[in-house]
């Protein structure tokens, strides 16, 4: 069941976590290809962490502002 307008449920949070992981993994692959090196420093991991958090926040915000039918900025019918 989808969450109602201006609310989130556990499924939304789990999907947001999955989106964060996928976004971070894709950014890590891009960073590795772009720099052609794999270093374990904050400058390497900073965009990975921030992209994952941004993706999760965007997904959760979209679900928070959508009703149970997936319509954005509409209350329940």
Secondary-structure map:
Elements: H1 10-35, H2 42-64
Number of strands: 0
Major sheet attributes: none
Number of domains: 1
Helix content: 55-70%
Intertermini distance: 15 Å
> Which regions are unreliable across 5 or more consecutive residues at pLDDT < 50?
none
Question: What gyration radius follows from the Cα positions, in whole Å?
Answer: 16 Å
Structural class: mainly alpha
Strand content range: under 5%
Series of H and E elements: HH
What average pLDDT do the residues reach?
A: 90
Tertiary shape:
elongated
Give the count of helical stretches: 2
Describe the protein:
The chain has 77 residues and is mainly alpha-helical. It has one domain (10-64). The protein contains two helices and no strands. The longest helix has 26 residues, at 10-35. The radius of gyration is 16 Å and the shape is elongated. The mean pLDDT is 90.
Question: What features would you highlight for this structure?
Answer:
single chain, 77 residues, mainly alpha, elongated
Brief overview:
The protein is 64% helix and 0% strand. It is mainly α.
């Amino acid at each position: 069941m989808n969450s109602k307008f201006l609310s989130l449920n556990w499924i939304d949070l789990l999907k947001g976590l999955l989106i964060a992981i996928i976004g971070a993994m894709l950014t890590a692959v891009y960073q590795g290809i772009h720099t052609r090196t794999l270093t374990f420093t904050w400058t390497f991991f900073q965009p990975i962490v921030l992209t994952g958090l941004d993706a999760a926040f965007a997904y959760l915000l979209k679900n928070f502002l959508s009703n149970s039918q997936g319509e954005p900025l509409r209350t329940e019918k």
